[in-house]
Amino acid sequence: MTVVGLIRHGLTDWNTEKRVQGQTDIPLNAFGRKQAELLSHRMKDEDWDYIYASDLGRAHETASYIANVKQMEVTTDQRLREMFCGQIEGTTLEERVAKWGEDWSQLDLGVETHQQIAARGVSFIQDVIERHPNQKVLIVSHGALLSLTLMDLIPHENIEAHIHNTSVTTLQHINSRWECLKYNCISHLDGLAPETV
Question: What are the coiled-coil residue ranges (predicted)?
Answer without folding.
Answer: none
